[in-house]
Records
---
Amino acid sequence: LYIVMGEYAKAEEVNRRLLKALPDFALALRNLAAIEDLRTRAGAAAKETTPERLAVQQEAIRLYEAAAHAAPDFWLPRLELGALYQRAGANDKAMALYEQVIALNPQQVQALNDYANLCAEEKKNLDKAIEYARKAKELSPFDGAVADTLGVLHTLLGQPDAAVEQLEQARCLL
């Protein structure tokens, strides 16, 4: 709750106390990682690359990895770590994590869409990407981001009619 309210210091304190009692508590590790990740994206400093910002980002990565290790079936830290890597431009790492999330939770729309979107950006694995984007669309038919990804993939695959349909839907939904 403190994280949602933006009270990161209180959230950090609560989760650190939890970790003292339960050192491998994956949710507390994930929450601390999310706090660090949010701090790297906060304010004007989010656009700057400073040693402090990089240190905070590295701590978020360490905590996400610890959460994933502590609970191998807990897909959320992998999804969030993938998003962090994607924002940092480490697309291969992000894609590998999204695939892990999909293996753990085949109906995770964000992972399906983010993987497909990265494939479209990189113009690789387009057959797998369109499969994932179609599945995401099936699971979340009114998600504009999914329609956009699907439209871009249809464009890349030389399917203009399908591309226009999806991009028009995306325009209406976003």
---
Amino acid sequence: AEASDVASSHERIDASYPSRSNESWKPFTEAAAATTIRAVLRALAACHAHGVVHRDVKPANFLYMREPDGSRRAKLSDFGLAARIKERDGVLTERCGTYAYLSPEMARRRPYDFKVDAWAAGVVAYMLLAGEPPFADWDAGVTRARVWAGAAVDARRRRDGEGGERARERGGGE
């Protein structure tokens, strides 16, 4: 992992991941998702090697930079909620971040460490491949309950109209 996996303020941003409201928001191909997931994990490894927990890992916090060869590289940004863990076995307790990406221990205000970033990276990986977050729902209370339980909704059920915002927009939903 390298510091170059983290965006700096002087770099030119090519694009960011589309927002939820953007209709072009579709699942990535497996190859594109693998490249992005690798970048997510490299950036987090660089942060963790310096004792930094990001605490708000989500697609919107990855910016795509155009490389000299024309390829795009995802870089981690927005360190506004980041915190430092000074001791090897140190923990944090503040709940912060975007609820759909929170680990159950952070959502429950239990002590946590770097693993909360790994959880969020897993949520991002799911989202890139499925096209939507595993825990999110139109109702924030439902999302909160799913995060607490660590109970994702199967993306195939969503596509078949059994839950989630997109299903609700099509007239289905919970």
